[in-house]
Amino acid sequence: MAPGPVPPGPVDAAGAAELLRGASGVLVLGHVRPDADAMGSAVALATAVRRAGVPAVVSFGGPDPVPAPLRMLDPGGLVVEPDEVPARPDVLVCCDTSSPGRLGTLAPLLDRARATLVVDHHASFTGFGTHHLVDPHAPATVTLVRAVVAALGVPLDATLARALFAGLYTDTGGFRLGGADALRLAAELVDAGAEPGTLLRGLSGTSSFAWLAALATILAGARREPDAVGGLGLVWATVDAATVERFRSEVPSAVGHLRATAGDGVAALVSEISPGEWSTSMRGTGVPDLSAVAARLGGGGHPGAAGVERPGPVEDVLDALRGELAAQADLDGRALA
Ligand code: 5GP
Ligand code: MN
Minimal CA–CA distance to 182: which of 154, 216, 142? Predict the structure, then answer.
């Protein structure tokens, strides 16, 4: 049977592979300020597409550059600057991206591609693009990409394995989520050449000594509101624009310290990513559902980890957050009762 065009709508890994194989060229994007799942899934997918004989490059929309430590996942140099991408890609792929806004400065490409395949695992996926390989139960986008790589008939090698492992490790919180399937995939990737020790050391990067003082200042400014989130409590801290600018790769890690003190409550790191624009990174147990909280504020994510960008002043950002967290705690509390 001659392969016809893949009809728009939901696709499985085989359908995604068919769409990619039939492309004259593929541009793979991940979300702005990529994490290891966005970078790993985009690089792994483009690597496999190239091996299947179709030209492919990767890019990430600005305004911020790709964090330097993630570059190690791209030994082949598939990632190009946003101003170097093809103006009219045949097939556009958006990895780990729940809404068009998450493509940053590259979002206008959505109107110029012949087809747009979204590969994502966010419950907050908004339904953009022509073809969707979206599974909110997947612990990471790389698990979906792994299936597409297999459907393309491309065997794993060390480059693919490293990129996939990095995303899997990060989005499962070091295998706290994802169950036995995630661990089985991890074993397959280690067999194929991913070395967790080397990889994770490289991904955390090296920080300047000055980061210790900056982190101390951020954490010294943290506040705890025990009555927030319907009594579960909120721990939050802010990061000013100068610190974000100077320690771009390090700042996101600070939310882990807040989370460690938040108990059953919620941790929030509120960073001024550009003058007057604040990015909030939230962590919790999954109750209340932070992806619902973030979605109502204009962002997205997962029940236990979500984020949103909003204009300041920062007091307004915090007030909106407090309001939505309390409302969601009330909703989820009722659902549990
Ligand atoms: P992080 O806090 O690590 O930046 O992100 C946690 C989760 O929330 C990730 O799945 C990430 O994609 C999502 N997320 C973070 N910030 C935003 C945002 O501004 N908008 C949307 N839609 N999702 C976000
Ligand atoms: Mn992800």
Answer: 142
Its domain, for residue 56, covers: 9-204
Cβ-based neighbours of 242, under 8 Å, separated by 6 or more: none
215 and 187, same structural domain?
no
Quick check: helix, strand or coil at residue 262?
coil
Overall number of domains in the chain: 2
Distance 77 CA to ligand 2 centre (A): 22
- Protein residue closest via CA to atom 14 of ligand 1: 307
Residue nearest to atom 19 of ligand 1 (CA): 308
Dump the DSSP string for 125-142: ----SSEEEE-TTSSSHH
Q: Which residues' Cβ are closer than 6 Å to ligand 1?
A: 31, 35, 98-99, 102, 124, 252, 281, 299-302, 305-309
| Cα(167) to centroid(ligand 2), Å | 7
Please check whether residues 297 and 214 belong to one and the same domain. Answer: yes
Q: Distance, CA 99 to ligand 1 centroid (Å)?
A: 11
Ligand showing the shortest atom-to-Cα distance for residue 98: 1
Same domain? 169 vs 241: no
121/274 Cα distance (integer angstroms):
27
Selection from 236, 215, 247, 316 nearest residue 284 by Cα: 236
pLDDT by residue, tens only, the chain of 337 residues: 344 689 999 999 999 999 999 999 999 999 999 999 999 999 999 999 999 999 999 999 988 889 999 999 999 999 999 999 999 999 999 999 999 999 999 999 999 999 999 999 999 999 999 999 999 999 999 999 999 999 999 999 999 999 999 999 999 999 999 999 999 999 999 999 999 999 999 998 889 999 999 999 999 999 999 999 999 999 999 999 999 999 998 999 999 999 999 999 999 999 999 999 999 999 999 999 999 999 999 999 999 999 999 999 999 999 999 999 999 999 998 776 6
